[in-house]
Design a protein that fits this description.
Helix content: over 70%
CATH architecture of the largest domain: Orthogonal Bundle
Order of helices and strands: HHEEHHHHHHHHHHHH
Strand content: under 5%
Largest sheet: 2 strands, antiparallel
Structural class: mainly alpha
Number of helices: 14
Number of strands: 2
Strand order of the largest sheet: 1-2
CATH topology of the largest domain: MetI-like fold
Radius of gyration: 27 Å
Shape: flat
CATH class of the largest domain: Mainly Alpha
């Protein structure tokens, strides 16, 4: 006969008895170690996201009480706001210009750095330095480089007999100038990632292809590119997400100008939120940007099966 006194009658007793199993204890310890990360995600990611979504349905200037306006912010955004359409166009143009250029240049540099040449470590460090440099310092230096009167770029153009350009003061060339700086600053991480991907390709594949008579171009086309497709996919996805979030270079170099030539979405969010104190309207723009990035990422994931080989 089982002693009734030994049975776990209370909830705490049943819990203690349940946790005596080693698998349960192991799971509890795992969740305990994950708890700080989970709490950080809830406090600094999920809660701000939900709060911003709720705020996008209000009119709020940080001083008075928020006023619920329903879909009013979104109606104004899509039906009346011409600056929003210009910001979307500029952001898309920036993405189309910067992502392919940055990916191709990073891939070329990675192939060079993957060769057995002297000073490889120095070159890798040099290409990565722009990433760890201050955004303010980078923007100020490049603003001097693009100076229309005595900038280095115009001096080089004059040396080759080409016309001097206004660059940051031109509505035509301001956005391409931002793209050049962004590509220069972003090739470091992409190059390092590509180098890691190249070093993961088995050398036996190249040896077998060389025995069959393949030249360098054929090796790159039929071995390097297919084997590097997962790395390329990762670089493209991260680059597109980053290009839609460009802000610091625009803020420091052009302030969205001249006119609205470099007005991008994140800078437009900043203007409404911290210049004009339209927090609700800024939140609606931010939510639209979140949806755009989310949809584009899903499309890339869906299309990746056609060209990414694992």
């Amino acid at each position: 006969m089982v002693d009734v006194a030994l049975r776990p009658t209370s909830m705490w007793g049943r819990f203690v008895s349940w946790t005596r199993h080693w698998k349960v204890r192991e799971a509890l310890w795992g969740y305990l170690f994950l708890l700080p990360n989970i709490l950080g995600f809830l406090a600094f990611n999920l809660f701000p996201l939900l709060f911003a979504i709720g705020m996008s349905f209000t009119r709020w200037d940080l001083i008075s009480e928020p006023t619920f306006v329903g879909l009013g912010n979104y109606e104004k955004l899509f039906l009346e706001d011409e600056s929003f359409r210009i910001a979307v166009k500029n952001t898309l143009v920036f993405t189309v210009m910067s992502v392919p250029a940055g990916t191709i240049i990073s891939l070329i540099l990675a192939n060079i750095l993957n060769q057995k040449i002297r000073g490889t470590t120095f070159y890798r460090t040099a290409y990565f330095l722009p990433v760890v440099s201050s955004s303010i310092a980078v923007a100020l230096v490049w603003a001097w480089v693009f100076n229309p009167d005595f900038g280095l770029v115009n001096e080089l153009l004059s040396t080759f007999g080409l016309p001097r350009l206004k660059w940051l003061a031109s509505s035509t060339w301001a956005l391409p100038a931002i793209v050049i700086v962004s590509v220069w600053r972003g090739i470091g991480p992409s190059t390092v990632i590509f180098v890691a991907g190249l070093q993961g390709i088995p050398e036996e594949l190249y040896d077998a292809a060389k025995i069959d008579g393949a030249n360098a171009r054929q090796l790159f086309r039929h071995i390097t590119i297919p084997m590097l497709s997962p790395t390329t996919f990762f670089v493209i996805v991260v680059s597109i997400i980053g290009s839609f979030q460009v802000f610091d270079l625009v803020f420091m170099m052009t302030q969205g100008g001249p006119g609205r030539a470099t007005l991008v979405l994140v800078y437009y969010i900043y203007q409404h939120a911290f210049r004009w104190f339209g927090m609700g309207y800024a939140a609606s723009i931010a939510f639209v940007l979140f949806i755009v990035i989310f949809v584009l990422t899903l499309i890339q994931l869906r299309l990746s099966g056609r060209w990414v080989h694992y």
